[in-house]
């Protein structure tokens, strides 16, 4: 209900409140979300995901190297990455990451319109705090291609903090946002008082997300299969995608249970193995030893100590991994309770929804939440924090 102060996550046709950012090209059309992911085994070369890594970037050696880790074709299109489907009628076209993103946003727009029985004309976008201007503009372009005007852009850590109501307090507080999603690990140190957010420091690891965990698990079990049975799991893209899906499922199950059973089947070959949570943590040790590095770095950049932090917000599905939570709590000596009431996959969307209500003058708050974009831009460029310039286009005034 508009004006109630509640955020409602609109479900899709499958009653899912969160959909995967996947797009698939098929002879019968474009599939989005769960429908796209469900057919990835049979159509890996035309099933696209992980576009957040590529949107707004120029083609480079590092982009080319990242592209090789994916089963779909990513090519250099006049200096920018583009998806090149192999299935008719799309095999003669190239699709930018913005266009792929627009397919996902169109799906979300349709779900919202079906739910409210009206037209969605404007959108609030949440972007990583370390996105540069090109990446932000490319994300905005995706929204425009989806038929929406961009009402506001908020950074993901600020949105996550808003999901917990941390913008409502007049007291100055310092917040650490630990965002471990599918692609990257991002750590942000925020200061907030009376609804105004400033970014004190950010750090991260572009190769420490859920997909990186999957890749380490895939390499481990592919080696076991080769040594035990002489089977090469990398022999085909279908086999590789099946292995990835099995690793993803096992990882999720181990966040809830102490053990799981991996049942890999590709063609006539099958492989069954029990995996305990302890073994999973040992397999992922090369990654997990880096979990706290961005936290330490962000604190150092912000000239803060662990005891200076008032709140810790977890964002992203990978923060469900028990070992991740244990490491964070241990680092802060169990002094702070982790904010867990909001599902980590939904925190950014909920915060963006609150910001949208503020922009639309629907939110029953005495003050709006505003980000200090001068501080954010100075932080990105490595300049000293502070300054007198104002960016009125980026700030949102309090509702009347």
UniProtKB/TrEMBL annotation:
InterPro entries: ATPase_NBD, Heat_shock_70_CS, Hsp_70_fam. Coiled coil: none annotated. Residues 381-400 are annotated as: Disordered. GO terms for molecular function: ATP binding; ATP-dependent protein folding chaperone. Residues 387-400 have a biased composition (Acidic residues). CDD domains: ASKHA_NBD_HSP70_HSPA1-like (cd24028). It comes from the Eukaryota. Gene3D superfamilies: 3.30.420.40, Actin, Chain A, domain 4 (3.90.640.10). Keywords: ATP-binding, Nucleotide-binding. This is Heat shock protein 70. The lineage of its organism: Eukaryota, Discoba, Euglenozoa, Euglenida, Spirocuta.
